[in-house]
UniProtKB/TrEMBL annotation:
Pfam families: DUF4012. Keywords: Coiled coil, Membrane, Transmembrane, Transmembrane helix. The lineage of its organism: Bacteria, Candidatus Falkowiibacteriota. It comes from the Bacteria. The chain crosses the membrane at residues 33-54. This is DUF4012 domain-containing protein. Residues 89-116 form a coiled coil.
Amino acid sequence: MEGFNKQNFIEKKQLEDQEKPHWSRFFLLPLHFLPQIIGLILAGVLLVVILLGLSTLPYLNSIQLVTAEVLDARDNLQAFAQYLEQKDYKTAKERLEVANNNLFSAEQELQILKQKAVFNLPIVKKEVDLAEDLIVIGSNATKIANEIFSISENVLADWQTSNKSFSEISEAERSQILKKLVEIGDLIKHSQVEIDQIDSAYTNFIGKGKYGFWDPVEDAVVSIVPSMLKGFEAFTTVSDVMPSLVGLDQEKKYLFILQNNDELRPSGGFIGTYGIMKVKNGDLKSFTTDNIYNLDVKIKDKNLAVPPEPIKKYLGMSEWFMRDANWWSDFPTSAEKIEQFYHLEGGPEANIDGVIAINPNLVEDLIALVGNITIDGVTFSKENFTDELQYQVEVAYFEKGGDAEGDRKDIIGKLSKELENRLFNLPLNRFEELFDVVTRNMKEKFIQIYVKDTTLQKYFEEKKWAGKIEYTPDDYLMVVDANLAALKTDRVMNREMSYKLSESGNGYTSELKLTYINNGFFDYRTTRYRSYTRVYVPEGSELVELKIGNDVVKNEEVDFYKEFNKSAYGFFFEVEPKQSKTIVIKYKLPKAVYEASRDKDYKLLIQKQAGVKEWKISLNFQFKQNIKSFTQTGSRQGLVYDGKLKMDELFNLLFD
């Protein structure tokens, strides 16, 4: 047997290894063919594009027609808006009709194209769908606009030829406008199907992104459609409310109150100024304001009304006056009491149709809208309105030699008159801004309205504009502060709320922490904060413990209330300047709340007190069930939420 030759074996092995491909070469192999593969792919794509182009070539004229008609419709609708703003209603209507014809032609051609198989291919169908969305938006909008024009054409034509501003038109003309407004509102309500189609088509159009053929109309769609939908909503709201509120064919009288939320009271703030507003057919017949003390003084020392116990105890008052009548955060209740005092104190108007309360926040926003206002050499802006007005009536009036308590707020009447003039002469194209200002202030409860017209009052309550404490079978929370002899210290107060709910056994236990931070000093406006506070919770809740700072309050020292289908705990506390204080309230929720939420969902309604700008809130929920909705942190069975409360909020948690 031939002996083993190590050198020959090694050389043979190396030769075999060279002939045997390494495993990595299998991965490198495709790189040799990459240019050919790319070439084949590009050729395939090019072939598809060519075939697609050849397939659509017979319909090129139709495609161009649809595109041209849609673009022309866009241009005509933009021209319509411009002529409308210029009050050239005849030309505006002509452009609207041309736009309608454009869209009709585009729709006819598009329906023909959709029947062809090539236009159902994904790469083409997207463009067809976008075109269809645009046509739905345009056709429905022009249809509704044409019908509105048919109703209001005569009024608009008269307004155009007379060249009057809204403040200059006659009462008869305003009456006619209000009646047309009702007709337009009814029309828009009956057009809700078309409006919903516009909304859906707009959502589809925006959702598809990268609009291809339709890039030229993107800006117009995005800028016009949301405003148009908001305009329809505004029209229906105004038509539902305005005719009755502003006295269509019948004068309405409203008791007006200015609530200063720098000195917070339950329904929104201290009533320092009241007034009477008379309107008929949209015309503000008169609006007079006066210092509340000029009315209150008429019953001083007559002991005609006994105040609530906290007013007696913490204000040292043995008599009750109109300035303190807004003792309930439920505005309809406070409004009725305010009107009672108006009559009790000899208010000259026998019949009042409602009560309207505003906070300075609204005036600040209106000044921002109409521009700075100068009265007797004093300029008021959005930024300085509240502080400057406070200085003028508390300090400057007396520095200038004034000595009559009843006259020091005359500047408010002058300011109101100038603001009224500015608003009535506001350009038509800024009415949307005015609508936004008013609705936002209503939502945040800086405007509250109570009327005796039950239909209208129900409407305000449904819109959450009435300042009403809401009924709910679920969990509920509302904190109501009453500044009692703490000057205007609410202007420097920060409020923080922490609410923790835990499920244990067969029920819920709640822990509420309220922290009040006094950022003020001892001066003519601010001092130590003194508040009588009521915390409203579900009716039947059982108080476990209440602590103010480090002190536990005995149950017999807590005021217990049952009102507005709620339980409430009342207590008094103080916070020194540059200090803070935390109140901790522990209580068990009633069995009914637990039963209502078990195995389904849990709801918590937090209502913000009118006049409070915001609460910083933190919510912490711990349940046995898993939570499947709401943004959550922590465990699957827990939820933590941090935010700011600027209006009433409903928190809804769904369980698995």
